[in-house]
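Notes from the 1:1 (GR / supervisor)

We went over the backlog. Supervisor wanted to see one worked example end to end before approving the batch request, so GR pasted a single chain during the call. The sequence is below; no edits were made to it. Supervisor asked that the structure be written out right there so they could see what the output format looks like.
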Amino acid sequence: MNKVFAFNTMQILGLDICADTMMGDEMLRGISGGQRKRVTTGEMLVGPANALFMDEISTGLDSSTTFQIVKSLKQYVHILDGTAVISLLQPAPETYELFDDIILISDGQIVYQGPREHVLEFFKSVGFQCPERKGVADFLQEVSQSFSFASLV
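Structure output shown during the call:
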């Protein structure tokens, strides 16, 4: 493992300020919850895996921190020729725009899988139009909750 790579990962994730702080537990005060999530992300990035599977990494984080983490992950997977599958609930518009592809799942079924740029076009073709003043991520969350699979069978 390259020490420069590890240090850069800490800087990008905003962990350089707590590099010498213990994780902590119920009895020992340590790093914050947001920092703890970033440590987990950093561990995954510097490990040997080329694929990252991350579930709801934004829980407990503000939208700015989530944006920075997803932006960093995107840079890493593009540079290292890897893959990241990240589930997010209600991502901010600028975070949503960082994704190359979207997999939209509703009731255990894939509703859409493909490039982010084509998702609205797909839903328009099946009768769901995104209102002008609604963010795409919010629209996708709403449409996936109301989508009827009985009509597709």
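Supervisor's comment: The first helix runs from residue 3 to 12.
Batch request approved.
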